[in-house]
Amino acid sequence: MSPGSSWRSWWTFAWVAARRPRVVGAFCRLVPFLVCLTLDPFGAAARTIFVTPTGAGPGYGADGRLAADRTESFSTDTMRTVLPGDVVQLLLDTPDPAATTVYRAHVVLSRKTSLAPDSIVIRGLGARTRLIGRSVEQIRDCPMPEDGTERACGDLYAALAAPETPDLLAALFGSAAARTLPSERAAGARPAIPIGRTGRLADAACLDLDRVDGVVVEDLTFQDCWLVAVRALGSRRVTLRRVLVIGSSYGLAARGRPGQPADHITVEDVTWVQDVSGYDEASLSREGPFRCRDGRMTALGCPGLMWRSVPWAVSHHGVYEHFNGALLGGADLEGPVVFRRNTVLSAYNGIRLKASGCEDLPASSLSPATCPYNGGLWISENLFSYVRDNPVELETWSTDAHVARNRIHNAHAWFSFDDMGGGPVYVYGNRGWFDDMPALAWSGSASVGPACRRRPVSAPPDAAGFDPVLDRRFDYLKARWLPVGVEAIDASGRVDRMDVEEQSCAASVAGRVVKLALPPRGAAPDTYRYPRRGPIYLFNNSWYLRAPVTGIGAAANLRHWNNAILFCEPGTPGYAPELCEARPKTFDAAACGREFVQADGLGRFPGARGSLPFFDCFRWLPVDERGRDLLDLASTFDHDISSNGFPQGFGGPPTFELQGRQGDPGFRAPERGDFTLVPGALARTSACRIEEADDGHLNCRTTPADTAFAGAVAPDGRLYEPPASPHFQPPD
Fold first, then answer.
1. Which of 336, 388, 451, 631 has the highest Cβ tally under 10 A?
2. What is the pLDDT of residues 205-238, one digit of tens each?
3. What are the angstrom distances between the C-alpha of 61 and each of 121, 384, 395, 577, 690?
4. Domain locations in the chain?
């Protein structure tokens, strides 16, 4: 028993309850209901449980002073004794005030629920207490074959696992077996913690939360916790706060399911550096600034292997797929979900939320009743820098999502909403800029690591054009390496091969602000999702771009108002010819639209001046799975400012940017992310103010020009404030 801990009078019963649920259930059926209610820890005094890696000995605070004469071990066994309201305090195991204590045990907190509102708190000493996990190679436990063929390293169970696309997030959440003892499971219970061969994926997290209601993880450092730092299954009221995550596919991966909801998920004030290859790793801190390997100090992070050297598709579904994660990855989260004040550096995605439980529903049947996931999202005040894919990615379904006041530096496709139903989504007050480009050797001064290089082979025919070192996928669910160039093998044995062009270094280097798409070839009717419940509102954002506003798709139910856009053209701050040219240099509609149900009408549409496209590989109207125009999803663009002006001839309506203005918005130093306005800036005024109508929709209402402004920053330097409405009031 830890010093300062207070045993409760009902402790023995709680101990039995955690280990013998059926015994306790029988007991409760034999005694009056109110007696059983008194056994809940509601209102009981909380304990502080002091832990060190091995326990037994003393524990010390950050200043080296003795905090506890005797400690428990930080282990699954210790966590079984923890009750709501308790604080698990990780301590140093040495009085040396400069030392760091390393915790290496994989810990599971399981089946903690209570009538009490109190949460369990797992608290560290910041950078001084580090949870260390396992490497990617240890998780795979399967050397890549040298001959390009398949190699299976799993046991019989892995071989017979349900065939499915080898998605990393799905593998983390797959229910294969449980870490709990047989005596702890209710009859017929479906286990929550997945494992692969000999516990492979059970240990793919540093901390597992299994059906926990109320837990806060704070003031810790997670290092090399591949594949995930914290995995939460069927858990609610989960908070990750003031944490540094170094490495990991996911910082927090959370999933709900019917009967085991996952809601009230919060990630705040967390710093995540996924790819550390460009950093002086020993000096990493949550607060920054960050020291790059070339000696630079920066608050914006450092380019590394994933940004500089690896093709986009290789980190998406190739040998570096372990990067294809996010600080928060969620499946079937019911909301609210709060993701705020985080720093995401050198990562693949920032936040990625799926509604997996709705993927098989007809698109026309989706509603908050049939798909109660990804509702009430607040993604605000984050920094995303050197993000190879999407800072924000919402998949399948999302409603009432706010993406506000974020800073985006050197990212690929900033806001990904392709194949997403639902709406509304509100994107406002964001600032985005660049000073670098991924993969290509655009400048000899580009720091940290060589530019992307591939070594494709010409034989055998099935592998021709692929790089046998890069174009390999590891199926974490089945514990096997797929053959070179194979993306997936379905249940019938049909092989889906990678796209050679997509694997190239030149693929996915231009990016775009808003990522939308069109139905793929062969899509069945009523399967592709568009935001029909409400529009995607993009208003009062400030952007400095070398990429189009949107492309590789259509404008589906967008409301694009009061945005201030500066395109990188000769004479603009930070201009470099290689960095700011349109990519690909030659537009090919058939090539860019080869995956869609039709490529007709796709085009490259620059503004009235300049060379960079405003829209690229783009058509105005979205289409259904048969290629028919969807007139009811037409978009609206107006009152924006564009330094290049606006495109024509793309099929838009006469009202497209009728009140739009061509000219320099007047940003002070956009190449450095400073979007405050200089005196006399064009963006200091606007004839449109965004207001909420009685029915909840937003309108761009005509107003005197000196009472509104364009972009994210007001003339007085303050960030844009959204309409004064309960819909725009974030959770506490």
1. 388
2. 999 999 999 999 999 999 999 999 999 999 999 9
3. 17, 33, 43, 54, 51
4. 11-121, 146-182+454-504, 263-452+505-728
